[in-house]
Amino acid sequence: MGISKILVANRGEIAVRIIRAAREMGIATAQVVSKADHEMLAARLADEKIEVGPAQASKSYLKIDAIIEAARAVGADAIHPGYGFLSENADFVDAVETAGLTFIGPRADTIRAMGDKAAARASAAAAGIRTVQGSEGRVDAADAANLAARLGLPLMIKAAAGGGGRGIRVANTVEELERMMPLASAEALAAFGDGGLYVERFIERARHIEVQVLGDGKDAVHVFERECSLQRRRQKVWEEAPAACLLESVRAELCASAARLAKHVNYRGAGTLEFLYDELTGEYFFIEMNTRIQVEHPVTEMVTGIDLVKEMIRIAAGEPLSVQQDDIVLSGHAIECRINAEDPHADFRPTPGRIEELRLPEMSHVRFDTGLYPGYTVPPYYDSLLGKLIVWGETRAKALEKLRQALAVLEVGGIATTAPLHRRLALDPDVSSLRVHTGWLERWLEDRPLEPAKLAS
Fold first, then answer.
1. What pLDDT is recorded for position 211?
2. CB 427 within 8 A of CB 404
């Protein structure tokens, strides 16, 4: 292995995930922390920690020179960016490589071609993959208005950089378009350090299907697909693998097209190609690529047995893919629920605070990826994700039953969380019967307000 120490340039559950993978591979880790994060679990688990700035992400986790200096100070020879923050920032990759360090992820030119969502649409089209009608590249408010006149409304405004639902708005009128463009740009700038936007036609009742890919810069494979249609305000809350709504013929075509695009750009590392799927027609449209590890990667790991984070590290160290396409086989069904520090009984307001109690389900085929421990205080400055509850079953029905059992045991005491929402969803007949789409959860929440909050959730 050509990597001896990794600087983890992220925080929360993904930092813990990277540290544990590195440790199992015999690689030392150093964890960057903001002034507010010295007590987070990742800082306790890493071999060492180093402060990179104050609590504000713009002055710490998004500050390129501080991250590079931290890597030099601890003697790291590689940097894992996790997701969010600088994970899809090509300038950061350039800075890492200029410093003589290894970036655990794609090359900078690949991120510019595919991590930039507007540029990725052009690459997909060049590879013969259908895209949703939209702008040819980044747009300003005037360009967007002209596009609205040509394509009609509603239009979806999206951040050119980053992902995770940040910077996304749906404009139903020209007035909304004019009002939302600067808001979306400001949100994208705060989240990714890049306020660029593009727009595309909004497909209201589509399903969100995404394909996991791995590449070593020469070859690329797909690791099958996930469905992430349960979303609130464009943020995924529940993910499954595989997408049970797909016919086998559609799955094969969709996954093959994703692997083809990854090969077309000589992709290196783990990435995800996202599609909108029209269940009525069987058509799918490429919407964007995330050139990083995804929050929901564990469901893919559960149904294929492939450790995606370890594979990223091996590839960054110069090793070829450890698996060929024929080696990758689907087994069973996995579901992931995002447990956030939000109160679903109070319009999902953030609920930072002290974790008084943490009771986790100790069952076979159940995994909880988290940065929590009893006594930890969740700071108010960052994303509200606390952990991810992932279950596996031989069938989707068995996975759902396992999820209900695990959610009944899970208890995060001291702050309100989204666990009650997932308990309700796990019992809902539409969820059980796959009668959902990307707009389904918003309407479900309007029709079925949750009961008053309980402190222990």
1. 98
2. yes
Give backbone dihedrals phi and psi of 139, rounded to 5 degrees, phi first. -135, 155
* Matching residue, tokens 């159940």: 366
What one-character-per-residue DSSP string does 289-303 give? Answer: EE-S--TTHHHHHHH
3-state secondary structure of 260: helix
Query: What average pLDDT does the chain have?
Result: 93
**Which amino acid type is present at position 208?**
H
- pLDDT score at 457: 44
Residue 146 identity (one-letter amino acid) = N
d(CA 311, CA 21): 10
First-last CA distance in the chain: 43
Please give the DSSP secondary-structure letter assigned to residue 173: S
The pLDDT tens digits of the residues spanning 235-253 come to 999 999 999 999 999 999 9
φ, ψ of residue 102 to 5 degrees: the values are -100, 130
Please enumerate in sequence order all residues whose Cβ is within 8 A of that of 396, keeping only pairs 6 or more positions apart, or say none: 240, 244, 333, 335
Please name the amino acid found at residue 203. I
User: Who contacts 226 (Cβ-Cβ below 8 Å, separation ≥6)?
Assistant: 209, 210, 211, 212, 239, 240, 241, 242, 243, 296, 299, 300
| Distance separating alpha carbons of residues 3 and 421, to the nearest angstrom | 42
Q: What is the pLDDT of residues 395-407, one digit of tens each?
A: 999 999 999 999 9
pLDDT in tens, 13-47: 999 999 999 999 999 999 999 999 999 999 999 99
Active-site residues, by number, are 292
Tell the residue number behind the tokens 């990435």, with chain if given: 271
Handedness of CA 247, 249, 250, 251 (dihedral sign): positive
Using alpha carbons only, give the angle 301, 303, 308 rounded to the nearest 5 degrees.
15
pLDDT at 1 over 70: no
Q: Give residue 456's pLDDT.
A: 44
Give the largest CA-CA distance in the chain.
Answer: 57
CB 283 within 8 A of CB 153: no
pLDDT of residue 452: 55
Residue 162's pLDDT is: 64
Given phi > 0 = left and psi -120 to 50 = alpha, else beta, which region is 425?
alpha
